[in-house]
């Protein structure tokens, strides 16, 4: 029990990154019922853009908006060139297409980025934390802070900004938006772009402290239990789900694995939790119930 | 003025729903379209508003012209913005997950002028009941309130024409009366044309100046309010009056034997 603060703290810091990636997924799912399986690659590409801008010698205050915008553009292009052409089709079909996009992107990354991992450095003041005997390194703390701020900004945007309200309306019903003169198609593209921006930040925080590699998109898969736990259509759900899964992972590594004598349990612990929750609440913790008036 | 000529519409390439519909909607007027379920009313509205494609429908023949401009297959967002046509769908044009203010803000979002706040005040003046429900997600509003919000959303876009799909559906009679009163008021005060699709013929005819009757995808009758109200077939089949206004004996009401004299 002595490491509890360390374990939970690390779990939170990791979880808030999962939350970022999960929110990126939820944004798209909410508006088009498509599960973007290439989310991991969006994160990787974000990190790669960061790396490119950094290699060009740009200062941090230029890199941050820069790489976010580049990834937003990229995601918007994916939507415009591929997803939009499939509008009207079964969302499941479009989801399968995203699996294909994922493979293609990994291939491109291998070709143009290469097989060698690279590191990105953020020249930030040292924020090493020592609380109640727990020790958190600066990178970890910064990642957590950046992710948390991004989430807060996104929540405020989604709830209060005009574009955020329009995004929610279009997610509710594209037809109703259209008949009121709202350009639902453009809003869908913008939704993907914003999702890309969020994924880029996710990718950057994952790479920061470890490294970028062409296949780091695997981290996207870790977001799957998060969104299913939180409810595919709920942004707060994704955030809370992320935190829960983050803590579940660290608790498994520190306590359950030695206790159960099952090394590697940490990898499946999120799915066990997911299973238990879904048995009781199939729509996820915060999943949307259809408001049906009878 | 909106002119529909010889419209033939199919769904999924094979289900033929409109077989040559023609009508005109005069500016500033409330025109009604009466018809039973399945007659093709909603399909006609979808065609006019441009969303037919979303439902896998297609215009095979015919045209829709607004002020002589052909808009038959025009992008629905253009039809809404440039021509000011707003389709109030049967399930009410409200966004259930958003609250009232957010709904109105969305509807006003494509406007570039500065009178949005004034229009919002007008909406609350027309529908005071909405003021007490501001905090709720609009999916939880009652049917009547949703209909009010629906009209409010439409008004926020500064429309020129409203397409109303069975607005009285599911509403208590007292609300129906109130709602038609508001519709008439909006028509008169804001000079907004209305195309009113209804099954509740009596209520519709009280506000409409001109009307059409559609059956099985064809327009079978048209006329001014007076003409329609005095038409024998309308009286029997849509207004519920028996041949001479009396109750009919079951034996006498064999519909299949009674032929409609649409020319009369």
Task: Note the main attributes of this structure.
heterodimer, A: 294 residues, mainly alpha, two-stranded antiparallel sheet, 11 helices, B: 264 residues, alpha/beta, 6-stranded mixed beta sheet, 4-stranded antiparallel beta sheet, 10 strands, globular
**Biggest β-sheet description of chain A:** 2 strands, antiparallel
- Label the structural class of chain A: mainly alpha
Order of helices and strands of chain A: HHHHEEHHHHHHH
Low-pLDDT sequence parts of chain B: none
Main interface: chain pair and counts: A-B, 24 and 31 residues
The rounded Rg of chain A comes to: 19 Å
Would you kindly provide a written description of the structure presented here, covering whatever features stand out?
The complex is a heterodimer of chains A (294) and B (264). In chain A, 72% of the residues lie in helices and 2% in strands. Chain A contains eleven helices and two strands, in the order ααααββααααααα. A two-stranded antiparallel sheet of chain A has the order 1-2. Chain B is α/β, with parallel strands linked by helices. Chain B contains nine helices and ten strands. A six-stranded mixed sheet of chain B has the order 6-7-8-3-9-10, sandwiched between helices. In chain B, a hairpin with a 2-residue loop joins strand 4 and strand 5. In chain B, helix 3 runs parallel beside helix 5 and helix 4 runs antiparallel to helix 5. The longest helix of chain B has 18 residues. Chain B is globular. The interface between A and B is medium-sized, with 24 and 31 residues.
Structure in a nutshell:
The complex is a heterodimer of chains A (294) and B (264). Chain A is mainly alpha-helical and 294 residues long.
What is the topological layout?
The complex is a heterodimer of chains A (294) and B (264).
Chain A: H1 4-32, H2 39-55, H3 60-83, H4 91-112, E1 129-131, E2 134-136, H5 138-160, H6 162-172, H7 174-179, H8 184-207, H9 218-230, H10 235-260, H11 265-280
Antiparallel strand pairs in A: 1-2
Chain B: E1 2-11, E2 15-25, E3 30-34, H1 41-49, E4 57-66, E5 69-70, H2 76-83, E6 85-88, H3 100-108, H4 116-126, H5 143-156, E7 161-165, H6 173-190, E8 193-198, H7 201-207, E9 210-215, E10 218-224, H8 225-229, H9 232-237
Parallel strand pairs in B: 3-8, 3-9, 6-7, 7-8
Antiparallel strand pairs in B: 1-2, 1-4, 4-5, 9-10
Helix pairs in contact in B: 3-5, 4-5
């Amino acid at each position: 029990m002595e490491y509890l603060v360390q374990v939970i703290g690390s779990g939170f810091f990791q979880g808030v990154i999962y939350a970022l990636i999960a929110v990126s997924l939820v944004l798209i799912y909410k508006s088009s019922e498509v599960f973007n399986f290439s989310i991991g690659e969006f994160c990787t590409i974000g990190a790669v853009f960061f790396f490119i801008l950094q290699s060009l010698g740009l200062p941090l205050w230029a890199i941050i908006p820069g790489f976010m915008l580049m990834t937003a553009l990229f995601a918007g292009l994916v939507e415009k060139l591929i997803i939009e052409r499939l509008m009207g089709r079964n969302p499941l079909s479009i989801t399968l297409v995203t699996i294909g996009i994922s493979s293609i992107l990994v291939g491109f990354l291998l070709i143009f980025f290469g097989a060698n991992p690279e590191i990105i450095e953020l020249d930030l003041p040292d924020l090493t934390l020592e609380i109640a005997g727990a020790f958190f390194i600066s990178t970890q703390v910064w990642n957590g802070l950046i992710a948390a701020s991004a989430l807060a900004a996104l929540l405020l945007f989604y709830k209060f900004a005009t574009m955020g309200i329009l995004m929610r309306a279009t997610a509710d019903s594209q037809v109703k938006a259209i008949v009121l003169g709202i350009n639902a198609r453009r809003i869908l593209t913008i939704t993907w772009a914003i999702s890309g921006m969020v994924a880029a930040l996710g990718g950057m925080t994952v790479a920061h402290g470890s490294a970028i590699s062409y296949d780091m998109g695997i981290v996207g898969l870790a977001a799957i239990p998060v969104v299913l736990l939180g409810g595919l259509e709920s942004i707060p759900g994704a955030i809370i789900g992320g935190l829960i899964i983050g803590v579940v992972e660290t608790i498994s590594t520190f306590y359950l694995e030695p206790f159960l004598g099952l090394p590697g349990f940490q990898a499946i612990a999120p799915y066990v939790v997911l299973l238990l929750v879904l048995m009781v609440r199939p729509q996820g913790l915060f999943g949307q119930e259809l408001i049906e008036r009878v | 003025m909106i002119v529909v000529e010889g419209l033939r519409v199919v769904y999924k390439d094979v289900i033929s729903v409109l077989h040559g519909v023609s009508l005109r909607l005069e500016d500033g007027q409330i025109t009604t379209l009466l018809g039973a379920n399945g007659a093709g009313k909603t399909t006609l509205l979808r065609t006019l508003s441009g969303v037919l494609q979303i439902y896998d429908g297609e215009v095979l023949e015919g045209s829709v012209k607004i002020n002589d401009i052909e808009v038959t297959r025009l992008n629905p967002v253009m039809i809404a913005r440039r021509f000011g046509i707003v389709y109030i769908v049967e399930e009410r044009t409200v966004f259930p997950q958003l609250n009232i203010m957010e709904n109105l803000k969305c509807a006003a979002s494509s406007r570039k002028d500065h009178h949005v706040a004034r229009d919002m005040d007008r909406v609350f003046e027309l529908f005071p009941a909405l003021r007490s429900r501001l905090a709720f997600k609009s999916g939880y509003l009652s049917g009547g309130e949703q209909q009010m919000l629906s009209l409010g959303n439409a008004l926020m876009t500064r429309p020129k024409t409203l397409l109303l799909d069975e607005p009285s559906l599911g509403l208590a009679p007292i609300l129906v009366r109130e709602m038609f009163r508001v519709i008439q008021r909006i028509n008169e005060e804001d000079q907004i044309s209305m195309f009113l699709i209804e099954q509740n013929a009596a209520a519709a005819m009280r506000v409409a100046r001109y009307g059409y009757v559609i059956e099985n995808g064809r327009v079978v009758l048209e006329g001014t309010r007076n003409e329609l109200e005095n038409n024998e077939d309308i009286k029997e089949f849509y207004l519920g009056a028996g041949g001479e206004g009396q109750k009919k004996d079951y034996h006498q009401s064999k519909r299949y034997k009674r032929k409609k004299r649409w020319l009369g």
